[in-house]
Every structure is written in C-alpha cells, then in structure tokens.
Amino acid sequence: MAKFPLGKVPAFEGHDGFLLTESTAIASYVAQSGPKADQLLGRDVKSQALIKQWTSFAEGEMFQNAFMPVAMAVMKFYPMNEAAFDRHVENLEKDVKALEKALEGGKKYLVGDEVTMADLMVVSFMYYITKYFADAEMRKTAPNLMAYFESFAAVPEYKKYFGEAEYCEKRLAKDAQKQ
Predict the structure, then answer these.
(1) Taking a C-beta distance cutoff of 8 angstroms, is the pair 135, 171 a contact?
(2) GST N-terminal domain: which residues (predicted)?
C-alpha cells in the first residue's frame, strides 16, 4: 500500500521505480516502451483512435459486463446484486454482438492487418466470457468472435498466462453454487 495507496490492481512498477495503475495506462506504457510500439498502438491517427476505442471498450464495457457478474457469483468479491447481475449479462450479450459485427468477414484483428493492443485487451476479457457465459447458444451466434478468440487462445503466450481456453456448457447463474 505504500507504493500504491489506492490499493488498485493491476499495478506496475518499472525497473526504474516508475509506478503506474490502470490496465490501459500500463499496457500503453509497456507498448510505447517496446520495439513494436507502432504495431501495437497504431501507425496513423485513425488506427490509433480505433485502437483506443477498442481498448476503452475492453476496459469499460467488457470488464464491467464479463468480470463483475463473476466477481459477485463466483469470487464473492462483491455482494450479489441481482439487478446488476442481470444488467451486466444483458449488456455482455450486446458486447458480443458488437464484437461479432466488427469481425464480420472473418477479420483476424480488430484494427488493421496485425495484432494491436486492441486485440490483446479484448482477448484478455474473452477468458471470462468463454469460461462463464459463452454457452453453445452464444457461441453459435458469434462464429467470427469465436474464431478470433480461438486463434489467440492457441498462441503459446496466451496459454502461458490464461491456460487452455475453457468453454462453459451452461451460463453462469446468480447462485453459482447451484450450477
């Protein structure tokens, strides 16, 4: 808590003692500091704007709608709020539809022709979507999104941090103990 008084995670400390919190800020800093900064953050102003749009979507929409129900029902980080749970799940379905539309035509990446920070942020939250919400019915309605996710889930670096991709048979219920 001395280094990060807000107690937030994720938190980052650079080799030089530089401290930073917030997912997008950390990811941007790391990307800008590395050899693939242009690829990850965009080579032109429009690509940069689209990447920021999708990273904001991931950190805002996807985090709230995919993680918060899990935090209530599985991790018990927060008390169960049934109205909030239902709202998040309903909004998650909209998020999945938005991603499906963005990936129409079998696009491999959200922005351009190579992996960007947008893909890395979105795919990180797909872990929760596939494990807890993307039952067979949802997967059937989002073939482009599932193909996109599966291509990233097959990469050794993904497996190193997230393990093998997991797909739920039944969507997470408000009372996860009864599933």
Answers:
(1) yes
(2) 1-38
CATH 1.20.1050.10 in the chain, residue ranges: 43-178
pLDDT digits (tens, 9 = 90+) for 122-163: 999 999 999 999 999 999 999 999 999 999 999 999 999 999
Q: Which pLDDT tens digit goes with each residue over 108-127?
A: 999 999 999 999 999 999 99
**Fold entry, domain 43-178:** Glutathione S-transferase Yfyf (Class Pi); Chain A, domain 2 (1.20.1050)
Q: What is the pTM (predicted TM-score) of this model?
A: 0.89
Dihedral sign of CA atoms 49, 57, 12, 30 in order: negative
69 upstream amide cis, omega within 30 of 0: no
Q: Between vectors from CA 23 to CA 172 and to CA 117, what angle results, nearest 5°?
A: 95
Q: Would you list the DSSP string of 99-114? A: HHHHTGGG-SSSSTTS
Yes or no: say if 92 and 128 are a contact pair by the CB < 8 Å rule: no
For the residues of 32-88, what is the DSSP string, one character each?
HHSTTHHHHH-SSHHHHHHHHHHHHHIIIIIIIIIIHHHHHHTS-SS---HHHHHHH
pLDDT(45) > 90: yes
